[in-house]
Amino acid sequence: MDPFNEVKQDADNTKNILQSIIDKKNNSSDIIQDFNNNFQELEEIYEDLKQALIISESQPSNFNLSLDDIANRKNILKDLNNDIKRLKNSWEDRRNVKLRDVTTMSNRISQEYNQAGNPFDNGNGTGITQYQQQELIQEQDSQLDNIHQTMKNLNLQAQIMGNELEDQGYMLDELDYELDNVDNKLNRGLKRMNIFLEKNKETASNWCIGILVVILCILLVLLIIA
Question: What is the tens place of the pLDDT at every residue in 124-144?
Fold first, then answer.
């Protein structure tokens, strides 16, 4: 399968996930974080496809691509860019609608209780309205706290990964240093071995010559005596 089409399939899957998130009524911090992560992934996929198109367009013959293939991939990128903008606008509109709904509901409750007489009114025109506002503020604070905690966890994980990579870098440097030492020792040992062998060769030759001389002397003596 063409790698371009494989990456395009990933982009289509990510678009479907984003659309399903937008269609959900829940507006919790987890949903917001999930959307942001998938949207960032979709933007990265778009940039990867864009770079791949630039490379293949400069040398289409190397990738067995025709001019029609290049034009088709340009249209795919154009459609993907439009989908990214559409999803972003839909997400922003959804969040704005949620905020307006909350504000409208709060104003409506306030008007109804003011007209009918608020049983929880403390005498200065405030009561359930302030409670609703405080509840909304607390919910927003809770969402911000969750986002802040998530960012702290991500930062901690990044620091741990950085420390691990740094430790592994030190270990690789030490291993490289040890390998250099072993290599140097091995070379010195081989040199000593070669010198030892050369010396032994010379000693063996001298012993052979000496033995032969002694044998010749004995033979000469025997010949003289005989």
Answer: 444 456 667 777 887 888 788
Residue range 3-117 in CATH 1.10.510.10 = no
Structural domain boundaries in the chain: 3-117
Residue 3, amino acid: P
For the whole model, what pTM was predicted? 0.43
